[in-house]
Amino acid sequence: MTIGILAYGSLIGNPGNEIKNATENRIRNVKTPFKVEFARSSTGRDGAPTLIPVEDGGAYVNAVIFVLKEHVTEKEAKDMLYRREMNKVGSQSEYSPPENPGPNNVLVEEVDDFYGVDKVFYTKIGANIDDLTPQDLAKLAIESAKEGAEKRDGISYLINAKKNGVRTPLMPEYEKEILRQTGTQSLEEAWETLVHH
């Protein structure tokens, strides 16, 4: 049986050592089986907007499946993915599904027989931005970039999403709004301006 991990956000370019070392190969040019949008302000990223599965709006976006080596069990795959999502790679943290999941619980879900892989796991977490407007998203991204220079901010996250070919309905206006609010010509320039302010 083949097991995979579906990456549709920062995981694509930065899966963390555990997933990287457990990966046999990657399947690219995959589309997510669910719609995705910048609908969550992430506390681990100083409030930056991040991509999550959404019921309303959003789009099916480009993703990558990390096909894991044969010896990796389902439990190990779920635990690895959970640790990466919680920013606890290399710890002993294990995934156990909450009995009554709330909007802030990280859930590991699965999709079967996906692009020729028997079981593919992905993470899901609730939306927490009520009013999804490009203006609000830009504000959150800008605030997060002012907070720290570790590239865990919203502008770096958006730059990487673009590089990975992710496109959502809000993205073009969200980007324009960051440039407008920072008076810059590119996301890279916006980031530089905010971090070295």
Tell me what you see in this structure:
The chain is an alpha+beta fold and 197 residues long. The chain has one domain (3-195). The protein is built from six helices and seven strands; from the N terminus they run E-H-E-E-E-E-H-E-E-H-H-H-H. The protein has helices spanning 16-22, 74-85, 134-147, 154-163, 171-182, 187-195, and strands spanning 3-7, 23-31, 35-42, 48-54, 62-68, 107-114, 117-124. The strands form two sheets. The chain has a five-stranded mixed beta sheet. A hairpin with a 2-residue loop joins strand 6 (107-114) and strand 7. The longest helix has 14 residues, at 134-147. The N and C termini lie far apart (52 Å). The model has no long low-confidence stretch (mean pLDDT 94).
Q: Number of DSSP strands? A: 7
Give the helix proportion (percent range): 25-40%
> Distance between termini?
52 Å
Strand content: 25-35%
Task: Assign an overall shape.
Answer: globular
Mean of residue pLDDT values: 94
Give the H and E element order.
EHEEEEHEEHHHH
**What is the radius of gyration?**
17 Å
Low-confidence stretches: none
Structural class by helix and strand composition: alpha+beta
**Largest β sheet strand count, sense and barrel closure:** 5 strands, mixed
Number of helices: 6
The tally of structural domains comes to 1
Strand order, biggest sheet? 2-5-1-7-6
Please write out the topology:
Blueprint: E1 3-7, H1 16-22, E2 23-31, E3 35-42, E4 48-54, E5 62-68, H2 74-85, E6 107-114, E7 117-124, H3 134-147, H4 154-163, H5 171-182, H6 187-195
Parallel strand pairs: 1-7
Antiparallel strand pairs: 1-5, 2-5, 3-4, 6-7
Helix pairs in contact: 3-5, 3-6, 4-6, 5-6
